[in-house]
Amino acid sequence: MAPLNLPPFDYKTKQVEGKLYIFDLLRRKYVRLSPEEWVRQHIVNLLLTHYAYPKALIRSEGGLTLNQTQKRTDVVVFDRQGQPFLVVECKASHITLTQTVFDQIARYNHVHRAPYVVISNGLTHYCCCVNHDTAEVQFMDDFPAFV
């Protein structure tokens, strides 16, 4: 897998029928290792180890219904009251983070209504604070602290 602009971590992989799998700490199982999954696992590790987000409040590959269509949010972090706090959209490192990616997370967050959103391709990361009352979006220098 491609090197990323995220802290390295100890991960477990295994091969099954010639395909590589990585152990997902959140789902507690091995999942197929794709370039996007590689980024997602690094983001989850970052949230757990560098920002001390509680593991029990992070959901990976959670479903949501958008315009009567089932979608999957890469990562959602919930606050201590069970409300969405941070929504993360991960892309493979070769995918450029364009307006289309921002539009995708904006659609997902229209459902979740989290105050923070992040998009990352493992090399570049954008974190934004979203005011749902005014529709104002502010870019942040870092991920939000979990409170």
UniProtKB/TrEMBL annotation:
It comes from the Bacteria. Residues 35-144 form the Type I restriction enzyme R protein N-terminal domain. InterPro entries: HSDR_N (IPR029464). Pfam families: HSDR_N_2 (PF13588). Keywords: Endonuclease, Hydrolase, Nuclease. GO terms for molecular function: endonuclease activity. This is Restriction endonuclease subunit R.
